[in-house]
Write a structure and sequence with these properties.
about 350 residues; six-stranded mixed beta sheet; six-stranded parallel beta sheet; globular; alpha/beta
């Protein structure tokens, strides 16, 4: 078993990490960290547990550690980060400098030229940036990121469409409240309402998508030249981001060609990888968050409503934002790191 830790383990995404790592077939969670206010407590007492399964007994009595390199045992092979981006920007580089490999969900450094931003089924070869990163920063450890929860919902479908000549993408998102954390959106804000702005989200989708779809040259990632435009909206759904995607391609595929391209995306032989990666519906009323967010144990992308338009194609896609879009994505990256010998 590979020993792992979770940074920021008491928050919403941190709890999802703990839930998914409990009983993992190759990872053993032995370290949980949080803010100084929680350090020294048992995980059971420190975490205001908000998931629909009990706190895993194998982890409940772990003592919460401070989030510092000195507090983490040297034999911890891999750290999963659920830290807020401002904390991650300070703590993650220090951990990498101390020799730890960090698979992070935090948004800091996702756009850095030497930091791999990875969806394993899409761009596993981008892990080659680790050598570039270590040479540039003098680290023995490494920092790997997964993308934003809305980006990761859409990009696997776009990757399937590159064979048709991807030119321009427009996306409107309907994003669940869990993406904002427990205290991110109050009930008075979201009930009977839609909030048509999520700070910084559009920019993340527009830039991260092009990096993920880009080509690794051995020294850098050359971003895909497609133009991506996004409009992001918060809706009163607990979990599951639904996205309306409009794509202009140089070729003119029929809906059946698009569905076949989605269905032909290969899966990976990793514990958390879903099979299939993209589940495609012919029913125009699917996918729906309540019905389809747990496809592939929450790691699959659901797609439907595929049709041609005057300018290209349109479809809807959906993923569970705290599983595929956050903790599950980081864990899958960790599984890839372990398989490829980086940890």
């Amino acid at each position: 078993m590979t020993t792992v830790g979770v940074l920021g383990a008491t928050g919403a995404v941190g709890q999802r990490f703990v839930q998914l790592l409990a009983g993992h077939e190759t990872f053993e969670l032995s370290v949980v960290t949080a803010s100084p206010d929680s350090a020294g407590e048992t995980y059971r007492d420190a975490a205001n547990w908000g998931l629909d399964t009990p706190v895993p007994e194998s982890i409940a009595e772990l003592t919460v550690q401070p989030t510092t390199p000195a507090a983490i045992p040297d034999d911890t092979a891999l750290l999963f980060s659920a830290l807020p981006s401002d904390v991650g920007a300070e703590v993650e580089p220090a951990l990498c400098e101390a020799g730890f490999v960090v698979s992070s969900n935090a948004s800091n450094e996702r756009r850095a030229g030497d930091v791999p931003l990875v969806v394993p089924e899409v761009n596993a070869d981008h892990l080659g940036l680790i050598d570039v990163q270590r040479d540039a920063r003098g680290w023995d450890g490494a920092l790997v990121k997964n993308p934003n929860c809305s980006t990761i919902t859409m990009v696997p479908t776009l990757a399937a469409l590159t064979e048709f000549g991807l030119d321009r993408v427009h996306v409107a998102t309907l994003q669940a409240v869990s993406g904002a954390g427990y205290s991110g959106v109050t009930s008075m804000e979201i009930l009977d309402n839609v909030v048509p702005h999520i700070g910084g989200e559009e920019r993340k989708m527009e830039t991260e998508s092009r990096k993920l779809l880009g080509e690794f040259t051995g020294a850098e990632v050359q971003h895909h030249d497609a133009v991506v435009s996004a409009s992001c909206n918060r809706v009163p759904t607990l979990d599951g981001h639904l996205e309306n995607v409009f794509v202009e391609t140089s070729d003119h595929p029929a809906p059946a060609d698009i569905a076949a391209a989605f269905e032909d995306v290969p899966t990976l032989d990793l514990p958390s990888a879903p099979d299939p990666l993209i589940e495609t519906f012919t029913d125009p009323e699917r996918p729906q968050p309540r019905l389809d967010r747990m496809r592939g144990d929450g790691m699959a992308i659901a797609a439907g409503g595929i049709q041609t338009t005057d300018t290209g194609i349109q479809y809807n896609c959906l993923a569970h934002n705290t599983i595929r879009g956050a903790a599950g994505a980081s864990i899958l990256n960790g599984e890839l790191l372990a398989r490829e010998g980086w940890v």
